[in-house]
Amino acid sequence: MSTKRLAVVCNYVLREDRIGGMDRFFVAYDAAAKAKGYEVEWFFPDVLDKTFYEGVTVFSAEGNSSVEAFFLNYLQENEKTYTTLVTHFTELCTPFYKKAKHAGRIKNLIAVDHNPRPLNGFPLKKQLKNRLKGYLHHKATDWFIGVSSYTARHIVKDLGKVVARKTGVIYNGIDTSVFRKRENHNLNQQGKVKFVVVSHLRESKGLQDLIDALALLKPDLQNKLHITIYGEGPLEEGLKQQAKDKEVDQLLTFKGSSSEIPKILAYYEYLIQPTYMECFSLSILESLSANVPVITTTVGGNPEIIKESMNGFLVEPKDKKALAAIIEEVVLGDRKITEDTSVLIEKEYTLDRMVAEHINLLD
């Protein structure tokens, strides 16, 4: 019996200070594939720390090239062959897939799409380019998997109906056991209502709108809330300066990246995510798992998980007045969430379910 060999190519950097939902998925998926008899090898653009990945066979491009180019070079230099190739966070329908399939004599190629789309869609030139890529290169990929129904629809919209028959959905899931749960939804009566943001600090995450929304609140209401921001990114200094200019910097604390998110979410009353583009947010799943409701936008897969007034509140992206109004109503107690938001996650969006559905694609 020939050995089954699996390669997983991920455009994702391994970091010590960011052990998140995808890291837990990768490690669990590795164990499940091995249990099915696969030898598994992982390829990343850079590995800054692999402590969490003990026992996982990891190769790193060390930041010297794209992970796709690194993998192709690895195939050529080592004459390796694989039964299956799975990709995460890579661009779909590029020549890479055909080259990899041929060089690695790969029988089954699965591309998992985590990439959000722009708020107003791609410009016409990009649309035409995507459609051409789909026509030219779709045959090399056996499965296109979106992490939400929104993502799957847009795979077909972007690449054309030629990919519709081999496009499916596997929702992101999380390890609910690692999250400390908030006991109830009572607001902090002794101090300020505590909101939390867990986000990469870039323009598409919409945190500049959150700062503008805070500036719309009256001073007496501002004194009743505080927002802690976990994450880093190119917009960090700009956001801090914007907060100072708007005279709301005292309402915000920037904490940087943290690997302790599962333990600390329950200390907050609401997660705020004013994003412009999203596929299916792990941060939202994690917050709900901690029984912390979410205030977010109607983009991407967000409406597939957030049910208005049941586990959170939705606003249109860039609507700063609506965001300010919801924050005000929440702080004043005029809007409330009473249901345990973790129940849905434990039932429908678990890591075990996500892993099992991805493993099923291997056979």
TrEMBL record:
Transmembrane segments: none annotated. Residues 185-334 form the Glycosyl transferase family domain. Pfam families: Glyco_transf_4, Glycos_transf_1. SUPFAM superfamilies: UDP-Glycosyltransferase/glycogen phosphorylase (SSF53756). Residues 19-177 form the Glycosyltransferase subfamily 4-like N-terminal domain. GO terms for molecular function: glycosyltransferase activity. InterPro entries: Glyco_trans_1, Glyco_trans_4-like_N. This is Group 1 glycosyl transferase. It comes from Leeuwenhoekiella nanhaiensis.
